[in-house]
Amino acid sequence: MLITDIKRVIDQVSREKGIDAEILITTLKEAIVSAARKKIGPRADIEVHYDEKSGDVEVFHFKEVVEEVEYPDSELTLEEGLEFDPECEIGDSLGIRMDTEEFGRIAAQSAKQVIIQKMREAERNAVYENFIHKKGKIINGIVQRFDRGAIIVNLGQAEAVLRPREQMPKESYKRGDRIRAYVLDVLEESKGAQIILSRTHPEFLVELFKTEVPEVAEGIVSIRAAARVPGVRAKIAVSSIDSDVDPVGACVGVKGNRVQNIVQELRGEKIDIVQWSPDVARFVCNALSPAEIARVIIDEDNQSMEVIVNDEYLSIAIGKGGQNVSLACEITGWHLEVTSEEEYSREVKEGYDSLMKLSTVGLPAAELLFKAGYSSFLDIMDAVPEDIAAFLNISVEDAQAMIEEAGRLMKDERGRARNELLKRGSFKKPDTNLDDNAGEGETFDDEDDGRVEESGE
């Protein structure tokens, strides 16, 4: 390929690969300068002019006119300069036109290599630019091959990877199968853009609803939160900006056709669609459906709730392997503890009985303390006197006395526990064969935390 062929190459590459012709022309000029310097010398001042219409290339070697030449590749004598310009003087810079045939093939080959490199870079950039806008969207592809558990998906212009952890459990594909997945990320790397897909991400579920439910796509119905146990169960929380549109009904569709299409895409994954509510207690109740909630106890400081359900709904509220309550925690953002009414009643009774062991606490005071989060005299031990005083409308001194009494009760409880263990012969005595420091923290005394070791009967 000669320099005279460059215009044809530039036009073809620019047209077919979508690379700006200016980039290729700049590449050509740089290649010619590099080739000229290899032939003449590294200090040579080379200028290249390219005529975009004709494709003609002119190369000029600039030299300074000096009295005595020290650097031949960038200087010439006045006598030599007068041959090119009869009016030149010492200090002038002369542009001497070069015969490109001397190094044309070298320059053209260098330009070709750089152009090919630019083509590859442009193709990589084009893939990245085309797919970065699809991040967070669903894309269709064809299974092309498998690589150490990962599925390589052909997207037409590029390949994407569906890693093992992003694949649905018990889901299998063979080469040539069509596949839908969520574009989790598009990474710009030296070898080209890497497109990461997922079929397990909660946002894949959200995007599926956008494709199946027009009200979601139009923004009338919003998906407030989504959580999944991929392939098993999922929950989404929905709301509507239009009072005439039921968000749950819109997502379910007539005879469940909309949600069933999504369930089929997710290979039978059960989907609970729950009504979002600004009232967090109501939202939690909806999230735990179909279990019926008897009451909730809210701890806003720790963003947690104790949820009490009818005894027959306990297993439903918790779900198989705790899935229902776990997903409810994810979509509400609250820590939920589910308890049956029977268990809760027993805990309340035990708490009241424990608080009423304090000589100054009757039933009314026990109710106030229990509602304030003090479920036993053990909680009173760690309380701040001013807080107790405020809850019970008593003096700080009386509150401090109550805390001290709780400490004595605890000490008595530990003593009784120790005596009981000694009677059973299961209390572990310290090993007298060890030195004084050995076994620290293993013996039981009035100052420890009450932990004992049982021999096991």
Automatic annotation (TrEMBL):
CDD domains found in the cross-reference section: KH-II_NusA_rpt1 (cd02134), KH-II_NusA_rpt2 (cd22529), S1_NusA (cd04455)
Domain S1 motif span(s) in chain numbering: 136-200
A Pfam family that the UniProt record links to this protein: NusA_N
Keyword flag Transcription: yes
Annotated localization: Cytoplasm
Basic and acidic residues bias: start-end ranges: 420-432
Acidic residues: bias regions: 433-451
Subunit structure: Monomer. Binds directly to the core enzyme of the DNA-dependent RNA polymerase and to nascent RNA.
Family membership noted in the UniProt record: Belongs to the NusA family.
Record's protein name: Transcription termination/antitermination protein NusA
Organism phylogeny: Bacteria, Pseudomonadati, Thermodesulfobacteriota, Desulfobacteria, Desulfobacterales
Gene behind this protein: nusA
